[in-house]
Amino acid sequence: MHVKFENPLFEYLLRLGDNCLILGHRLSEWVGHAPAIEEELALANVALDLLGQTQLWLGLAAEAEGTGRDADKIAYLRDAGEFRNLLLLEQPNGDFAFTMARQFYFDAWHLLALQGLTGSTDTRIADIAAKASKEVAYHLRRSSDWVITLGDGTEESHRRMQAAIDDLWMYTGEMFEMDEVDRELLARGLTIDLASLREPWLERVTATLSKATLETPKPGWAQRGGKRGVHSEHLGYLLAEMQFLQRAHPNATW
Amino acid sequence: MQPGDLITSTRATLEQVWAWLGEVLDPEIPVISVVDLGIVRDVRWEHDGDDVRLVVTVTPTYSGCAATAVIAREIEATLCEHGIEALRLQTRISPPWTTDWISETGRRRLREFGIAPPAEQGASLLRLRRLNARAAVRQTRPK
User: What is the pLDDT of residues A140-158, one digit of tens each?
Assistant: First the structure.
């Protein structure tokens, strides 16, 4: 698919914001269903952090776009094809192991990406990245702990965590892909070389999986398309729930 | 502006404003003020032609902090009660908030409220360094 990107900065900020928005929404779906009250609070708190980061990134995206749309309009009034999140993050929650494996893969990447972005020549990007990376450091500690607890747990929890780690593996390759948007902004000193994150990410993931007595999947074919707006059918259902109120009652506030 | 100018006597001092802000409590832990929590980063007067405005800079504890809007409203309401008519509230996220910015009073209040105050990073490092120094002294002391 050929898409012309007239405003690469806007595109890039959408990617950062949509990652947080979509994963944050997925986590919020656990509220009322989590295995324990502490876990429910923790999941909701991570969701809230991600929603806060969404506001910052999409707020900056709105400025970069400069058409008068604000962060709320960008979040609630775009359709699936205009979303730029990674495919990994729109995958349905599955069981608790699946949710934690998805979180772990993303957190490990997210922290590296944000730490890199703190060196952006755009101080607004650097400031948001610095704020967010403090929060994401906690997210990664938490999801790593769960991968280890479940992996090195009972036979059943081990089986489920290994299955989740295997099933989600094909969605991780997209995190390190560089397209023309990434390349242009990198050349301007605004962003980072995503391909260079692959090695430290793999190192971190392998170390944790090995502590968890889990096998690291072998490199293989990667699903891609999310950051260019080509999504799985899951995203449409997610948006139907997330955007319902604004679609049914435009401009409603509370 | 020269000392003794009439206007200086009608405008609140920044110390006074900080004291007023000390009355604004965190809505989630209503024993600690926004000042003791360390989220008020700056207070200053801003001149815009003949207009003078108070500018209060606030930082969120966490970027998704749900209390941010409530805190902003309460700061506005408190300062308004004290006669501040022109106010601009601005958010600053850099440098990011850290629990090290909670004041001594804040820490005591948290403890009294039943919340263990977070360890001060500088302090705990200092303590570690002292312990290490003591251990080193013990090892090198002649038997």
Answer: 999 999 999 999 999 999 9
